[in-house]
């Protein structure tokens, strides 16, 4: 009921209530007994005689001798004994007999594994080509000294503008909007100072093509 939901079965009708003797087994109808009715085949009469004198012309002694002479000799089943009490076990299924190394396909890689290895190799080559193509498209580009100097001067100019705006704030920060504005200007100044420091520290700068 937890997994399949409440059982949906038809409710029994109130008219079909349990009646007396309804669960008792009913016996088959009685048949008229007839003493003259035969139940088994009749017994042979004393005057009946079995058929006798039938003889086969087959020489079973010669037939059996020919079968033994011409038949293939039955080889004994290989066994091994592992206890001093003489317990015998099958040698082929024991793992002691070199059964599988004598097969023609022993040590040969199955066809489905070769096919799978080829598919994996092909997928790896496609993936390597895809990575090389992306690396080629996203090759690093070195910016010139003029571009570096222009970026550095632009960052310093932006820092001066933000710093000037920060200096123009009121001395008393007594409202939430003023606090938010002050925090925003401080974060911008901090980020600009970090970028200026990185560019001034490194003379050679590479950028990735998007």
UniProtKB/TrEMBL annotation:
Main location: cytoplasm
Any one GO molecular-function label of the UniProt entry: calmodulin binding
Keyword presence, Cytoplasm: yes
PROSITE patterns: ENKURIN (PS51665)
Ranges where the record places region Disordered: 1-50
Source species, domain of life: Eukaryota
Compartment(s): Cytoplasm, Cytoskeleton, Cilium axoneme
InterPro entries the record matches: Enkurin_dom, Enkurin_domain-protein
Basic residues: bias regions: 17-33
Identification of the protein by name: Enkurin isoform X3
Source organism of this protein record: Acinonyx jubatus (Cheetah)
């Amino acid at each position: 009921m937890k997994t399949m939901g409440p059982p949906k079965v038809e409710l029994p009708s109130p008219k079909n209530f349990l009646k007396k003797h309804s669960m008792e087994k009913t016996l088959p109808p009685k048949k008229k007994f007839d003493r003259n009715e035969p139940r088994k085949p009749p017994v042979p009469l004393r005057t009946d005689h079995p058929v006798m004198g039938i003889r086969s012309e087959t020489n079973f002694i010669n037939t059996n001798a020919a079968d033994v002479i011409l038949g293939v000799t039955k080889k004994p089943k290989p066994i091994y004994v592992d206890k001093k009490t003489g317990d015998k076990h099958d040698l082929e299924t024991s793992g002691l007999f070199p059964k599988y190394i004598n097969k023609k396909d022993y040590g040969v890689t199955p066809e489905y594994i070769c096919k799978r290895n080829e598919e994996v190799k092909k997928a790896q080559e496609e993936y390597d080509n895809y990575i090389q193509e992306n690396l080629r498209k996203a090759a690093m580009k070195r910016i010139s000294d003029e571009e570096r100097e222009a970026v550095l001067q632009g960052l310093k100019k932006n820092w001066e503008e933000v710093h000037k705006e920060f200096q123009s704030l009121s001395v008393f920060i007594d409202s939430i909007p003023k606090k938010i504005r002050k925090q925003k200007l401080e974060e911008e100044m901090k980020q600009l100072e970090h970028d200026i420091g990185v560019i001034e520290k490194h003379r050679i700068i590479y950028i990735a093509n998007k």
